[in-house]
Amino acid sequence: MSSHTLTVAGVAVDTRHWIGGARVASAGTFTDESPIDGRPLGEIARGGQAEADAAVAAARQAFPGWAATPPAERARLLRAVADGVEKRLEDLAIVETTDNGALLRSHRRGVMPRVAHNFRFFADWLENLGHEDFDTRGHTNHVSWDPAGPCVLITPWNAPLMLATWKIAPALAAGNTVVLKPAEWSPLTASLLADLAAEAGLPAGVLNVVQGYGAEAGAALVAHPDVRRISFTGSVPTARRIAAAAAANLVPTSFELGGKSPLLVFADADLDLAVNLAVEQYDNAGQVCLAATRLLVEAPVAEEFTRRFVARASALKQGDPRDESTDIGPNIHPRQLDKIDGFVRRALAAGARAVIGGERGEGLYYRPTLLTDVAQDSEIVQEEVFGPVLTLQTFDTEDEAVTLANDTRFGLAATVATGDRARAERVTARLVAGTVWVNCFFVRDLRAPFGGSRDSGVGREGGDWSFDFYCDLKNTVTAPEGWQNHG
Ligand code: NAI
Ligand code: MG
């Protein structure tokens, strides 16, 4: 085994970058750890300016060929990548779980199939792309979706391969080339994806992966003048830095950022359904941008809701994410755990009461927590924790529920539990959110727009909206036969 390979449960992962169809090492490395036991998994190439330059140059060189590749051939190659994902689903699942601590059972059954679907979906989309024509005094206006050029994609650690491929697939389908910079806490599945892309026959330079820290590799990539699009999922402060770098080159950006989404439970709701939706918010140990972390419950049912919630939450099994029976795994990193615990300590000091949890467990595990007696303007209600920490507040009227729901600087998602269709429509119309779920959570069609309002994001991706972002639209106006402009 070369010094540039590490193994996870028998699966070999190359620890170098993937640039221009070749593995490239760096002088420096950083240590990747597993949140399951905090142990190091290996040393990963630590990219910086030189690697960013090389990767963007490779993407730029590959761009004309890829852009000129017929859509049917691009679609075929994307489907070949999807085949590869499906063939290596078990390897991808165990490597992702070991690297970021999310449940193996959800990687197997939900996440990795969705990774394959991301490629198939955008392959299909490309082949069925509409080319709208308009007519003006006999002149045809033909609208085409031209690829934009090299795209830099920066992704987080909470759903590494799912979020990376949600961007990679439309960017490539549209005819762009890509440089991916995965999060430094979960670099491994991006390297496996590079292997799959090569095996599928994707030409050199079409997909590149640069490993490293955000402040080094990431910052160098987003400031590069040859980049034509930047798509980012992560935190608000990082988005501000990327926006500033992109502004210098006038590069369009797509940002999917944090949230502090509400779950509104009305007294007319199916209470068991509402409780299930609430408990679901502990998924991925609360490290989900869409999580409805603010439970807003109509006062008359609050006590009964809380009683059933506590019963359900107490039955959750916390432990090793590789165990099929585990419901809640570890949080990603000691720094994340400190951050979560800091939020909870300050909330408790400010007068909050922990109905359940409120403290660390063993290792990197945090006890599922529900806090009440929290003020609307307090930090715990206003700021994203990104851990298994929910707050519960009560409301008396529909109007108050909407006011509380909208009263943060975020606007990513909202969930409404009610048995009254008319109420659902009234409330939904007033909520500020990119996605609203009524009596459900997390389900979503990839043709629909996805993104956040206010501090939760800029732009939308999904279906047409992805192509809108990753393409330079062109309108070609053709005169009718025999037409003379000055005849
Ligand atoms: P982050 O926003 O710093 O990291 C996300 C990605 O951005 C990583 O790949 C990182 O290397 C890269 N990055 C960092 N600085 C960069 C820069 N200057 N230029 C280019 N790329 C850069 O998020 P972090 O520190 O990992 O997590 C902090 C908090 O952010 C979390 O506690 C959570 O509240 C929020 N978050 C939200 C996510 C979401 O899904 N919306 C995902 C991850 C984090
Ligand atoms: Mg890791």
The fold-level CATH name of the largest domain is Aldehyde Dehydrogenase, Chain A, domain 1
* CATH architecture heading of the largest domain: 3-Layer(aba) Sandwich
Q: What share of the residues does DSSP label as strand, in percent?
A: 15-25%
- Class computed from helices, strands and strand pairing: alpha/beta
What is Rg?
24 Å
Report the uncertain regions.
Answer: none
The fourth-level CATH homologous superfamily of the largest domain is Aldehyde Dehydrogenase, Chain A, domain 1
Cα separation of the termini: 75 Å
**What ions, cofactors and ligands are bound?**
1,4-dihydronicotinamide adenine dinucleotide, magnesium ion
Number of domains: 2
Spatial shape: globular
Number of strands: 22
CATH class of the largest domain: Alpha Beta
- How do the strands line up in the largest sheet? 16-17-18-15-14-19-20
Please give the largest β-sheet: 7 strands, mixed
Helix content range: 40-55%
Oligomeric state of the chains?
single chain
- Number of contiguous helices: 15
